[in-house]
Automatic annotation (TrEMBL):
<protein>
    <recommendedName>
        <fullName>RNA polymerase sigma factor 70 region 4 type 2 domain-containing protein</fullName>
    </recommendedName>
</protein>
<feature type="domain" description="RNA polymerase sigma factor 70 region 4 type 2">
    <location>
        <begin position="48"/>
        <end position="99"/>
    </location>
</feature>
<dbReference type="InterPro" id="IPR036388">
    <property type="entry name" value="WH-like_DNA-bd_sf"/>
</dbReference>
<keyword id="KW-0238">DNA-binding</keyword>
<dbReference type="InterPro" id="IPR039425">
    <property type="entry name" value="RNA_pol_sigma-70-like"/>
</dbReference>
<keyword id="KW-0731">Sigma factor</keyword>
<dbReference type="InterPro" id="IPR013324">
    <property type="entry name" value="RNA_pol_sigma_r3/r4-like"/>
</dbReference>
<dbReference type="InterPro" id="IPR013249">
    <property type="entry name" value="RNA_pol_sigma70_r4_t2"/>
</dbReference>
<dbReference type="Pfam" id="PF08281">
    <property type="entry name" value="Sigma70_r4_2"/>
</dbReference>
<keyword id="KW-0805">Transcription regulation</keyword>
<keyword id="KW-0804">Transcription</keyword>
<dbReference type="GO" id="GO:0006352">
    <property type="term" value="P:DNA-templated transcription initiation"/>
</dbReference>
<dbReference type="GO" id="GO:0003677">
    <property type="term" value="F:DNA binding"/>
</dbReference>
<dbReference type="GO" id="GO:0016987">
    <property type="term" value="F:sigma factor activity"/>
</dbReference>
Length: 120
């Protein structure tokens, strides 16, 4: 049931993302803004840096990485929710981590916050 609901939610969000309003508001000339109002400016700058790095990655990779790292789903749960094989999930997460790490190292503030999965 949760997989079914997640698929519907994912498709609705995808439709909104494809709309011109979303593209203008997300990819406009304005700088990236935080998702939530926060009191701690250190976490705020880290959140903005992470969001900017994620914006450079392919959407399929970001989706798999966020579901794994942020939402805490397993590979099998992600595979079921997205309707793809678990191996594809693992591949997308691996590629996303590599691309994120590269984008993070190229960003202006890499020393301020470390990556949770570390360097190899």
């Amino acid at each position: 049931m949760t997989s079914w609901l997640f698929q519907i939610t994912r498709r609705v969000v995808g439709n909104v993302r494809r709309s011109s309003w979303f593209k203008r508001s997300l990819f406009g000339d304005r700088p990236t803004e935080p998702a939530f109002d926060r009191q701690d400016p250190v976490n705020l700058s880290q959140e903005l840096a992470v969001r900017q790095c994620l914006a450079k990655l392919p959407k399929a990779q970001v989706e798999a990485l966020v579901l794994l790292e942020v939402d805490g789903l397993t590979r099998e749960e992600i595979a079921e929710a997205l309707g793809i094989p678990p191996g594809t999930v693992a591949s997308r997460v691996r590629l996303a981590r590599e691309a994120f790490r590269k984008a993070w190292e190229e960003s202006s503030e890499p020393e301020e916050a470390g990556l949770s999965w570390g360097k190899r």
